[in-house]
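Ticket reopened. Same input as before:
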Amino acid sequence: MPRRVTKAVFPIAGLGTRFLPATKSIPKEIMTLVDRPLIQYAIDEARAAGITEYIFVTSRGKSALEDYFDDAPELELAVREKGRTELLQELDRTTMKSGTIAYVRQHRPLGLGHAVWCARQLISPNEMFAVILPDDVIAAEVPCLQQMIEAHEETGGCMVATMEVSPDATSTYGVLDVDAGTGPVVAVRGLIEKPDPGTAPSNLAVIGRYILSPEVLTGLARNEASADGEIHLTDAIANEVGSGRKVYGYRFDGQRFDCGSKAGFLQATVAFGLAHDELGHEFAEYLKRIRTKDGPLIAK
Ligand code: UTP
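Engineering reply: fixed in the latest deploy. New output:
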């Protein structure tokens, strides 16, 4: 049985241009989905899956993220004095114990594959590790990474989260070429990053959760950029398949929101707002009220 995965890499060094001007001074991962920043959803999912070591690949302008994980004694004191113990619990979820968290820098945004490679010194030989992209938020009864780790304990090899997308959307994703199969685990024959329209081998898109072997880092060390100038993680995983090593797609059970895009972020805000214990009812009433209203809600 493969060793349990306990280390996760969070590549968060991207520029987040789709959210400019907000991301001029705020990291995308600090942007708030209802009342928690995107990075908190990722951390919660990783913790629930048994991850105990967290590696953040950061870049210029991301220091707010480092502060986010520290103790905040003055805030805790203020909250304690107000008797808001429930907020103390919330704050507690944000802090990371010393020595469990490490930061490495990606000096230039050369692509997701390059960002993962930047963490190479912190991954031991023979150690499988997870990669989580915080802008893919996945609502699931069993957290997506936990589903994958459990499946990986049976299969070994590398594993990528996958979901079906409409055929006209495949050109915006990494897409899997797979053996036929209907279960959650599919054997991967190949991966193509952003295939030209009409050429995708399937409609199974790669989503931002991965379980990878150190061999992928060796492949990334070649620093081969593709035609768009980026070093893609999917290309390095495709090389694994080409080298005869096992790669699996995992059709997770859950709902994924692309919070790296404005439309996806808005959809997630509505879904998580409606599901929120305190706000859900009031928000649902509001949505009902505005559904029948003619014209814009606010003047443009
Ligand atoms: P995206 O493709 O969403 O790019 O990256 P981005 O820069 O974050 O956002 P846009 O497209 O400019 O709006 C997917 C994930 O890979 C990380 C990002 O931080 C995000 O978590 N990434 C991407 C890096 O860490 N480094 C890179 O060079 C590129």
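Residues 11-18, 28, 57, 106, 109-112, 114-115, 133-135, 260 surround uridine 5'-triphosphate (CB under 6 Å). The longest strand covers residues 185-193. Please confirm and we'll close it.
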